Amino acid sequence: MTPSVLAATVVGELLSRPQYNTDQTNQAAQSNAMLQMCRSLAYKSTPQGIAAGVLTALTFDTNLYDISGAPSTLIHNPANNPTRFTVAVSGTYLVYGQVCVGMSSGSYVYLQLNKNGATMTPIVPAAQAVNTLTGLATVCQFIAVIQLNVNDYVEFMAQHNNTGGANTTLNLTFGSIILISRL
Distance between CA 23 and CA 99 in Å, rounded? Predict the structure, then answer.
């Protein structure tokens, strides 16, 4: 067997394998696999000021990855809806969020997950972190497993009581992320 015939045989065999086959059945299987892969990971690359005592939707301006399971659709679109994560496929989703903030000693940051613009019912447990030392970053994390339908969206909300009055702002920056992944 000549090298070119051998190469053609190997390539032919590889292309006939299911992962390279382009028949209708395999395309349907690949489409179903994409539906299972719905996930998005976004983070903040710029600070966001949040006034004390005000529950505020957090903006995430950069996607590390975003796979919606639907053509030409993003779960998180930083340009159009920087606070929203909208699903294109119904299912059970894991939602994880984390914020890193610098606060005065004794201050807290509170996180909440909203669904379709409202507090979730039943209420998903929220997270709260208290800073014990001024000058150190406080990390507050949130995790939930929730059921979402097509076009449902979630928003990650934060509130704090940083000392210094109602106009004090916290700048959420490096380490503030949100992950949503279909299980």
Answer: 46
